[in-house]
Input
Amino acid sequence: MKRILVVGCGDIARRAILLLVSRFRVFALVRRSQAMAAVRALGAVPLHGNLDDRRSLARLAGIADAVLHFAPPPATTETDARGDPQHEKDPRTRHLLAALGSRGSLPQRLIYISTTGVYGDCAGALIDETHPCRASNARARRRLDAEHRLRAFGRRRRVAVAVLRAPGIYAADRLPIERLARGDPVPADPVFTSHIHADDLARLAVTALFRARAGRVYNAVDDSRLPVGEYFDLIAEACGLPRPPRLPWAELAARLSPSALSFMKESRRIDNQRLGHELGFRLRHPTVAQAMAAIDAC
Output
């Protein structure tokens, strides 16, 4: 493996690029021309293209031995021919796969960052990767569509595709400070959420390039299984901010956006044993509490 293509140049992708450039020739798909200089500064080769425009992706064919796919689905809805919102699609992943498979050699491996939201609400149950997917919101259904397309592509074209299902991502520079400062409430009921530090997710994506099994799904979560209120309490305490108020659901609906409310209604505790057993991966930030204790100031 000598050449790696990174698709989607957000925060986690940039962290992963820094881990790769000393050992590999890294190409990064960049949508905005003004971001190309920043990609070069990381040590990667920028390729101008837009996942929403299939014609702009032609040069991706045969360019890399492996692909890290970090790009999210579009925010707008694409449904099946009947317009059924239960069958929302991710056209960006479809365009990417068409470009990769159009000509030249195929990548040997492809890693996709998905979301634990594909499981839907599990009523606080402890679940692993075998749990049925019951995505209940549009974003998660698009991610699930991308998973299905990628794994089918891997089986059909003999590309080792693996999926990392990530939860809420945090780091010292991506904490919900504004939300805490506003005094946004959290549920009084114990709604369980999962998290992973941004550095650990970037390291995990790189590790999966070499160790993930073909067609396999991995829960990319840390060891924390926190009620959402306790998660915000930890951050508030570390940053010297007031703890968020607890409110019943009826009052939350009047205070929070529909997307925030939808997120907080999904309760699940997620098992991460495959990370250690199959990938030999060790978290540097095993829990949110440990990570917050190491933060000097917010």
